[in-house]
Amino acid sequence: MKIKVNTGIEETSGEIIALRDFANLLKLKIIYMNTARQITLQTVSVNRPGLILSGFDDYFARSRVQVLGNAEMYYLYQMTDENRRAALKKLFKTEVPCIIISRGLEPCKDMLDLAKEYDTPVLQSNAITSEVVNDIINFLNDFLAPKTRIHGTLLDIDGIGVLLTGISGVGKSETALELIHRGHMLVADDAVELKVIKDTIQGSSPDKIQDFIELRGVGFINVRNMYGVAGILRKTNVDLVIELVEYEKSHDYERSDAPMRTFNVLGVEIPKLIVPVIMGRNLAIIVEVAAKNFRLKQMGYDANEELIERMHRD
User: Fold this and answer.
1) Same structural domain, 95 and 211
2) 151 among known catalytic residues
3) Which of 57, 142, 190, 302 is catalytic?
4) Rounded mean pLDDT of 99-104?
C-alpha cells in the first residue's frame, strides 16, 4: 500500500537556551552537560525515538527534543551489549538537541559514553513520560513563539488585557498608575513584549524593568513594593488596544456608530479604540469603562444596539 509521507527537513532556525536554564525551568537533572553548555531548540514538537532504536531511520525528527520512557529503556536493556550500543549510536550520531529520560530511569554506560563522544546533553526527570512530554511541549510553545516588542503600557482590567499606546508624554503611565490605584494590575510599562500563543497575543514585561513604572517629574516607582503583589501580573492576553491621542479640535472623532478598528500584532488583529486626551478628562475612568464595555460586548450585550432598538420601538 502506498502512503504519502512528509519527509521534509524540519525548522533549521531556532532559539538558543543555556542548558542549566532549560533544566531548571522543566525541573530536570543534568546527567551529562555538553561542552557548549547550551542547546538550540527549533520546533515545538517532541519525539520518542523508538523507531530509530529499532533500526528504522529513513525519517527521523532530528531537530526535536528526544524523550526516552519506560518502553524505550526496557527495549534497550533487553538487547545484547553490541546491539544496544549500535542502536544508541544511530540515535546519537543524528546530533539531536538533547535526550531526556523519564521516570527517574538511569542511563546505561553505553548511553553516557556516546553522549560524551557526540557531545549530546542527557537529562533525567522523575515524572512519568506523558507528563514530561506535555511539560516540554508547553514550554516550547511559549519559548519559540513569534515575538515582538512595542512601546506602550499593558494592564489587566477586571480580566481584560488592555494595551495603552500613544506617543511619549501622552499620559499612558499616569493613566496606568491611577488604574492600579483603583485595584487593577500592571503587566508592563514603557516596553511590552508580545508573542503569539495559539492565535492569541500574550504580553509581558522585559525582566529588567518588570514591576517598574516611570512618572515624569517623579521618576521610577516599584509597583510591587508600593501596592503589593495584587498590583502586578506577570503576563496577560491582549484583548483590547486603546490608543491615547492628543485632542485636535478640527478632528472628527468617532461616535457610537463607528466600526471597530483593529491593531495588527504579528498577524493577529486586536480590537482597537482611539481615545482623545482632553484637559480635565479622567482617562483612567474612560479606559476602565472601555474595558468593561468591551467585556459586555464579548458576552453578547451592546449598549449601542439596545439604544437604537429603543429608539425604533415607537
Assistant:
1) no
2) yes
3) 190
4) 97
